[in-house]
């Protein structure tokens, strides 16, 4: 398991928009608890609609809100009249029922087609596209403090956002109003960047599009975030920053703390600042492992301290914690060649669990052959199609994209082909085969067979194992069948 797909720790807060709620316009998080994909339709007799009310109006107490079931939510700027709702409890006319963390409540409707651009008549509020409903935000500059400008289509939910037109991407910030209109403040607490940084959401990290010139798009959960781009440290003028190389290019991020290399980490705790946390749940690395990113694989340079540079993913170098003997590594790791296929490579602390007691997740098991902590493997999944490791719990997916196995196949790692040392026993109905990557002494367990009909399309029974035997119709778009190897290339 030499190639690792990594995602910068800096971006964990974008996995859920509410994670960065203190950066909303005006310093409030009132609108961040809303989940827009779970709205209830208003219901009730067609000829007897709900009683009118002033949902969305300013209030100081419940007495300021019309209707028996309305109340004042003081957490919204200036207060906000609302009401509890459900499928059988419709909202008053002029409002929509939306699910939130604390229950389903009514929000004032707004008109995105208003000719005067005044989508929400109340100052300091804008029209969120989903709904559409009025949330704290802006429709025009008049909704913003002096010196700030409104981007009416910005905000996590399109509710409009006030910003400083003189600010730039990457500037230090404490709240979103200190950033350019349409940008957000990625606080130091969540990003790890000293003083925080202004960035924007909505770019495509795979295509590398959606950012302005001089910005880099980084993965951020279901989308991407644009941060100040760079090619070397001198491009990042702020103290506490350096040019961090990610999968999609360099960005000005927090400096890496050398003492964190190889240590237990958690993206949520931010204890791998400036680096990447290889979580056990995503990579199998025992109880997680903090690495730095962007070293030079060919030259073997760019790692802190005694760090050793290896190929992480897509040709990007990552640094492992270097070592001389076993005593240099923490529990669950062993001092071994950094490149399992090259015994002469520099030694580093790599996963080498011996039992499940060192695993950080209670329901994970030690795969002694690979040294990884993995979910329990279901033998019935062996040989099934897969696109990535998520389709093969506790196992390893030999994908068509990376290894060429037609439509991918689910395997169990850690079995031994040669030599001596720890090995995982193949589940019943499977046998060990060389996967062609990583440690040549170790392989993966694939489906056993006695004849071709025992294997799925794209595979044939060779040496009593289901092995790649593609035809032109077995390979995905953009790939062709290599008749000699049976692989899709």
Q: Overall 3D geometry?
A: globular
Q: Radius of gyration over alpha carbons?
A: 27 Å
Beta percentage is 25-35%
- Uncertain runs with pLDDT below 50, 5 residues or more? 5-51
Structural class: mainly beta
Sheet having the most strands: 6 strands, antiparallel
User: Could you give the count of β-strands?
Assistant: 29
Proportion in helices: under 10%
Overall number of structural domains: 4
Span from first to last CA? 21 Å
Provide the residue-averaged pLDDT: 84
Number of H/I helices: 2
Describe this structure in words.
It is a single chain. The protein has 489 residues and is mostly beta strands. Helices cover 2% and strands 28% of the residues. It is built from 2 helices and 29 strands. It has helices at 188-191, 280-283, and strands at 34-35, 70-73, 80-83, 95-100, 103-108, 125-128, 133-136, 149-151, 161-163, 184-186, 197-201, 215-220, 223-230, 241-246, 249-254, 276-278, 289-295, 308-313, 316-320, 333-337, 347-351, 364-367, 372-375, 396-398, 409-416, 430-433, 442-447, 459-462, 465-468. The strands form 10 sheets. Strands 10, 11, 12, 13, 14 and 15 form a 6-stranded antiparallel β-sheet that branches. The protein has a 4-stranded antiparallel β-sheet with strand order 16-17-19-18. The protein has a 4-stranded antiparallel β-sheet with strand order 24-25-27-26, with no helix packed on it. It is globular. The protein starts with 33 loop residues before the first strand and ends in a 21-residue tail after the last strand. Residues 5-51 have low confidence and may be disordered.
């Amino acid at each position: 398991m030499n190639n690792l797909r990594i995602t910068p720790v800096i971006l964990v807060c974008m996995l859920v928009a509410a994670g960065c709620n203190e950066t909303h316009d005006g310093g409030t998080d009132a609108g961040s608890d809303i989940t827009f994909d779970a709205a209830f339709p208003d219901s009730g007799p067609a000829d007897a609609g709900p009683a009118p009310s002033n949902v969305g109006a300013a209030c100081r107490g419940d007495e300021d809100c019309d209707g028996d079931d309305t109340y004042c939510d003081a957490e919204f700027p200036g207060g906000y009249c609302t009401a509890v709702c459900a499928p059988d409890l419709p909202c008053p006319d002029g409002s929509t029922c939306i699910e939130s963390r604390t229950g389903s409540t009514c929000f004032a409707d707004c008109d995105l087609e208003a000719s005067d651009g005044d989508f929400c008549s109340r100052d300091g509020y804008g029209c969120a596209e989903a709904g559409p409903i009025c949330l704290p935000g802006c429709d025009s500059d008049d909704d913003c403090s002096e010196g700030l400008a409104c981007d009416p289509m910005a905000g996590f939910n399109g509710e409009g956002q006030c910003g400083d037109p003189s600010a730039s991407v990457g500037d230090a910030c404490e709240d979103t109003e200190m950033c350019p209109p349409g940008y957000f403040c990625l606080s130091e607490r969540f990003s790890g960047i000293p003083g925080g940084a202004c960035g924007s959401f909505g770019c495509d990290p795979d295509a590398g599009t959606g950012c302005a010139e001089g910005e880099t798009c980084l993965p951020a959960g279901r989308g991407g975030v644009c941060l100040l781009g760079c090619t070397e440290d001198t491009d990042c003028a702020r103290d506490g920053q350096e040019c961090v190389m990610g999968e999609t290019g360099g960005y000005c991020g927090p400096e890496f703390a050398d003492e964190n290399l190889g240590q237990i980490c958690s993206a949520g705790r931010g204890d791998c600042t400036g680096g990447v946390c290889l979580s056990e749940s995503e990579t199998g690395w025992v109880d997680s492992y903090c690495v730095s990113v962007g070293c030079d694989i060919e030259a073997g340079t760019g790692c802190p301290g005694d760090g050793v540079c290896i190929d992480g993913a897509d040709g990007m170098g990552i640094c492992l914690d270097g070592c001389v003997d076993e005593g240099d590594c923490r529990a669950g790791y062993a001092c071994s060649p950094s490149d399992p296929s090259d015994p002469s490579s520099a030694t580093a602390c790599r996963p080498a669990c011996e039992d499940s007691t060192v695993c950080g997740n209670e329901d994970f098991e030690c795969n002694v052959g690979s040294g990884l902590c993995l979910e329990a493997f279901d033998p019935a999944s062996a040989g099934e199609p897969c696109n990535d490791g998520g389709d093969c719990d506790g196992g390893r997916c030999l994908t068509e994209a990376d290894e060429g196995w037609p439509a991918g196949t689910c395997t169990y790692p850690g079995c031994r082909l040669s030599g001596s040392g720890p090995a995982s026993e193949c589940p019943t109905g499977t046998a060990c085969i060389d996967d062609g990557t990583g440690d040549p002494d170790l392989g993966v367990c694939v489906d056993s067979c006695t004849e071709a009909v025992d294997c799925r399309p794209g595979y044939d029974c060779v040496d009593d194992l289901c092995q790649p035997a593609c035809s032109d119709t077995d390979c995905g778009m953009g790939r062709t069948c290599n008749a000699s190897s049976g692989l899709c290339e």
